[in-house]
Structure formats: structure tokens, C-alpha cells
Design a protein that fits this description.
CATH architecture of the largest domain in chain A: 3-Layer(aba) Sandwich
Helix content of chain B: over 70%
Strand order of the largest sheet of chain A: 6-7-8-3-9-10
Helix content of chain A: 25-40%
Strand order of the largest sheet of chain B: 1-2
Shape of chain B: globular
Number of domains of chain B: 1
Oligomer: heterodimer
Order of helices and strands of chain A: EEEHEEHEHHHEHEHEEHEHEEHEH
Low-confidence stretches of chain A: none
Largest sheet of chain A: 6 strands, mixed
Number of helices of chain B: 10
Order of helices and strands of chain B: HHEEHHHHHHHH
Strand content of chain A: 25-35%
């Protein structure tokens, strides 16, 4: 496998504030790579540097074998971008949007005319070819933005929060489409705030905070390395007393987040048995997931 | 390097064409404005004020005014397009953000916008000339040279407006530029009257701004007046246009590529 993205010491500073702090990244061809982190961690800035749309303060960056930002224009001929906020052209219909965007890549309208039906099919918008953008739902607009990113049949697709703000059905469809792209050998780089999304889709995940990569691995490995395998979430009256009397001895680690006590343990059975004596308390037993890892590594406090 | 001169390539063409396609969809109201406004100006001021004034610079006032209105209309069309419309594409619709996600640079986007703005000034001036010819006030075939001049004047003022757009935090900011620069230029650059009787300092300021040079080229082309110092007048317009293009690209890179 060859590296599609190779960054060494990639840094972005604004005046005296360092937003991306010397990160190293290697993203292999055909991978789905997830960049996770709290708001302001440096995700979007990192993506902008990958696209060649912002100067690099320090470090070395190669994307698709080309030096960025010096060869960014050539690189973008082979890149697809799904921005965080849809910037479809409201003056154009669905298919005009695709045709016009193709013209920005120098694709002739005759060639685009052949590609548009399959792009509309990808976006499940076959019946909306002549609809105006304002007539589309949020999910439809998102799918059109994704289809638009494919006009140049890119090798690498960068998606900044592709499913934020979508309903569950719309998210499911987008996930299917992302898997279709992976099965065609495309490389995906995405950011998301949905840990279940990252866990499902990504082969490799980097969690970044304060401009630095905290950990990087497959979702399963991250969970195995950083968190106890079983989680019992407990809430209800007298939680504090129960936590003090029972949980502290039965769980390997406790976290109180809001009014829920998260009990992390290797073996959950003694703890569940102890809960039998407290019918007032509600609980949920589950396996540890990526969200547990994320919260452990980036902290519980609110970021904005 | 941020401050080196923009790279010129043919990539501006899809930017220009995108704007042409949008304009075609909204051409109806745009045409009403293009025809209606100069028509009313020429009728009201040309006939109304003209009957009081008589001749100006040896020309019937209506004829004098028509060549001025051509220039101010090219300027105003370009200024509106380069500020309100371009700001919408930059900050509201993020059309430019989509373009620079494709293999285009801001150099191409800004050049495409400037050439589109010149095209729009050309359309608006063509409409005025059509109205003027129906009114029987086109006197000479050299008037046809006014069409490429309208494009050129539009590009110059479009580039200047894009500098303001690059600096604007919101639409409201444009009023500074209109009130402090465009309106005085509109009034003092020989569109409505010869500035000969104004204070010399004001005359000098008007001479340093591009509109008076546009008028000095266009008025002779539309009348029998001699065309003097053509290269000087063109140079001033080129200086403002090219300088503003360069500055707009530098400022927009600072604003958008962060």
C-alpha cells in the first residue's frame, strides 16, 4: 500500500496561537481515516492544509504524491471535497450544479452530461435533476454535495463532518455511499463528532486535541488499549450512596458525568449482581466503545 | 509568495461562464434596470435640465449628458456587481469557496469575476446606446468604440470594488465607499457638467480618479470632439484596474485562505 497523505511535523500558527502543533500523519490508499477531536482541536485546519487552501506554518506535506501547497492545484484535480457547510449554488438546479462544478475542473459539458446520471443515482436524486436547491431537504443537499465532490472521479475524498445535522435515515444512506466509495478503492479522510460513525466506517482513527495527535489506531485497538471492556451506566435516586458503598469496590474505574455514574470494569457480573439490591436505580450495561475512549482522552468538560 | 503578481491562466473562463449562466436566469429584472434607469436620466435631465442649460462644451446638453451617463453607468454597474453581488458569492453562498476546492486559485476566481463585471458593464452600456440611438442622439460611428471601452471601464471599477469587498465585514461597509468615493466621482468627473469652474484642488482630485479619464475618452468617441491624450487616459484606467486586481487577490488570500 502507498501513502496518499504523508505529513511530517505539520504545523499551523495564527499570530502566536498554535492550532496544529507538529503532527505526523500517514494515510494509506484505500483507507477510511477518521480525524476526531473536540471543537477547536485543529481538525478543520488540518483538512484545509491537506487541500492546499491555507499556508503551512512549518512541516512537510505530501498529498497524492504531490508537495502541498506548491502543487496544490494539480493535486486538487484528483481530490474531492465535501465541506462542513453545503455551498451548493442556489441559482442553479441539481444537475446544473453538477455541470457547473465539473466546469471548474475543466470537464466539458458533453462529458459531464454522460457522468451526471450516475452521480444523480449515487445521490439518490434521479427524480430531482431539475429541482432547485431550495426544494431539497438537508439530507438531499448533503448527498448532492457528496456527488458534486465526485465529478472529477477523485482518488482521495475529504469530508468535513459529512453527517452533522442529518436525521438517522439520511445518515444511514450516507454511510452506505461512503462504503461504496471505499469498495471502489477510494481513500476517505473524514472528521465527525459521531463516535458510532467513526467506529463503523474508519479503518484508522486519530484523536487530536490542542493541535496534537493523542492516539492513532484502529477503533477496536483504541478501545482495547485505552478502556476497560465493560461499561455499566447507572442513574437514579440515591446514586451517590450506592456509588460510595458498592461501585467504588466493584468497578475498576468510575466517572460521574452529569447525573450518570459510568462504571468501567473488566468483569461486570459482581457489579450487576450488586445492583439487584437497588431496584430504584436504573442501569445500562454495554461494551466499551469509542466514545468512552474519546471522553477519557479529551476530558469531560464542555468545549465550544 | 503572497504579494507576487497573480498568476494568469485560462481558468478564469468557468468562473465568468458561471456568472453568465446565472445572469441569463435573472435577465428580466436586470434588463429593466439596464434600460429604464438611463432612459429616465436622459429624458428627465437631458430634456428637462437641458432646456434650461442649452449647450455644454459646444454640445446640446442631451448629447453631452449621454456620453457621461454611459461612463457613470459602466462605473455603477461594475461597483454594484463587484460589491453586493460578489460579496454574496464570497461570504453568503460561499461560491468562491467551492471554486477553490476545485483546481482553481483565487487569482483565477478574481480575474473571472473582474471579466464578468466588465461584461455586465458592457451589457448595460449597450442598452443605453440602444436607447440613445432610438432617441436619435448617436451622431457618429466611432460610438461603437464605446462598447469595448465600457468593458474596460467595468473591469477597472470592478477590480476596485473587489478590493472593498475583500475588506468588508458586511454589506453595510459598502456605504463608505459609495459615499466617500463613488458619489463624489459621479458628481465631479464631468458626467453632468464640465468641472472647469470648480476649485482647482477639486479639479486635481477629480483628475487623479479614474472616472474623469473614462469620460475624457468616451465623450469624444460619441461626439465630434477631438480625442486628446488617449494613452494617458487609458494608462490611468489600467493603473487603477491592474493595481486593484493585484491588491484584491492579496487581500482575498489573507481573508479566505486562513
Amino acid at each position: 500500500m502507498s501513502a496518499v497523505v504523508q505529513a511530517r511535523g505539520l504545523t499551523k500558527r495564527y499570530d502566536d496561537k498554535t492550532v496544529v502543533d507538529g503532527i505526523d500523519l500517514t494515510i494509506e490508499a484505500g483507507q477510511c481515516f477518521g480525524l476526531l477531536g473536540p471543537n477547536g482541536a485543529g481538525k478543520t485546519t488540518t483538512l484545509k492544509m491537506l487541500m492546499g487552501n491555507t499556508p503551512i506554518s512549518a512541516g512537510d506535506l505530501q498529498v497524492l504524491g504531490l508537495s502541498i501547497p506548491t502543487q496544490a492545484r494539480e493535486m486538487r484535480e484528483r481530490l474531492g471535497i465535501v465541506p462542513q457547510f453545503d455551498n451548493l449554488d442556489p441559482d442553479f438546479t441539481v444537475s446544473e450544479n453538477l455541470r457547473t462544478y465539473g466546469s471548474f475542473f475543466g470537464i466539458k459539458s458533453k462529458v459531464m452530461a454522460e457522468r451526471i446520471p450516475s452521480l444523480l443515482e449515487f445521490a439518490a436524486l434521479e427524480s430531482k435533476a431539475d429541482a432547485s436547491i431550495s426544494a431539497l431537504s438537508g439530507g438531499m443537499q448533503r448527498r448532492l454535495t457528496m456527488a458534486r465532490a465526485l465529478v472529477n472521479d477523485p482518488e482521495l475524498i475529504i469530508l468535513d463532518e459529512p453527517t452533522t445535522g442529518l436525521d438517522p435515515q439520511a445518515r444511514q444512506l450516507i454511510w452506505r455511499r461512503l462504503r461504496d466509495l471505499l469498495s471502489k478503492g477510494k481513500t476517505l479522510v473524514l472528521t465527525t463528532h459521531y463516535m458510532d460513525e467513526a467506529e463503523r466506517l474508519c479503518d484508522c482513527i486519530a484523536i487530536i486535541d490542542n493541535g496534537q495527535i493523542l492516539v492513532e489506531n484502529s477503533p477496536a485497538e483504541l478501545i482495547r488499549q485505552h478502556i476497560e471492556p465493560q461499561v455499566v451506566e447507572v442513574y437514579g435516586p440515591n446514586l451517590a450512596a450506592w456509588g460510595h458503598d458498592e461501585a467504588e469496590t466493584l468497578a475498576d474505574r468510575l466517572e460521574l458525568i452529569g447525573e450518570t455514574l459510568f462504571c468501567y470494569c473488566e468483569d461486570e457480573k459482581p457489579l450487576l449482581a450488586a445492583l439487584d439490591a437497588y431496584p430504584d436505580l436504573n442501569f445500562l450495561h454495554r461494551r466499551a466503545n469509542l466514545e468512552d475512549v474519546f471522553l477519557k482522552l479529551t476530558g469531560k468538560e464542555l468545549r465550544d | 509568495m503572497l504579494s507576487s503578481f497573480p498568476q494568469i491562466s485560462a481558468r478564469w473562463i468557468p468562473v465568468w461562464w458561471r456568472n453568465v449562466l446565472v445572469w441569463k436566469k435573472l435577465a428580466g429584472p436586470s434588463f429593466v434596470g439596464n434600460f429604464g434607469e438611463p432612459l429616465f436620466f436622459l429624458l428627465a435631465l437631458g430634456y428637462g435640465l437641458g432646456s434650461l442649460i442649452g449647450d455644454m462644451n459646444g454640445l446640446p446638453y442631451l448629447i453631452f449628458l449621454a456620453s457621461g451617463i454611459v461612463c457613470s453607468s459602466a462605473m455603477n454597474t461594475a461597483t454594484f456587481e463587484g460589491m453586493y453581488a460578489a460579496y454574496t458569492r464570497m461570504a453568503v453562498q460561499e461560491t468562491w469557496g467551492g471554486m477553490i476546492s476545485a483546481p482553481m486559485n483565487l487569482d483565477d476566481v478574481v480575474l473571472g469575476e473582474i471579466i464578468w463585471i466588465g461584461t455586465k458593464s458592457l451589457i448595460s452600456v449597450a442598452a443605453i446606446l440602444l436607447v440613445a440611438s432610438f432617441m436619435g442622439i448617436i451622431e457618429t460611428w466611432t460610438t461603437l468604440w464605446v462598447l469595448p471601452m465600457a468593458f474596460f471601464i467595468g473591469c477597472c471599477f470592478g477590480a476596485m470594488a473587489l478590493v472593498v469587498t475583500a475588506l468588508s465585514p458586511s454589506y453595510d461597509f459598502f456605504l463608505y465607499y459609495f459615499t466617500l468615493l463613488i458619489t463624489p466621482m459621479f458628481l465631479l468627473s464631468g458626467v453632468f457638467f464640465l468641472p472647469d469652474n470648480l476649485h482647482p484642488v477639486i479639479q486635481l482630485i477629480a483628475q487623479l480618479l479614474p472616472l474623469s479619464h473614462a469620460v475624457d475618452i468616451v465623450r469624444p468617441l460619441m461626439t465630434e470632439l477631438p480625442l486628446n491624450n488617449l494613452m494617458l487616459h487609458l494608462s490611468v484606467l489600467v493603473f487603477y484596474g491592474v493595481g486593484a486586481y493585484w491588491l484584491a487577490v492579496v487581500l482575498l488570500k489573507k481573508r479566505l485562505l486562513v
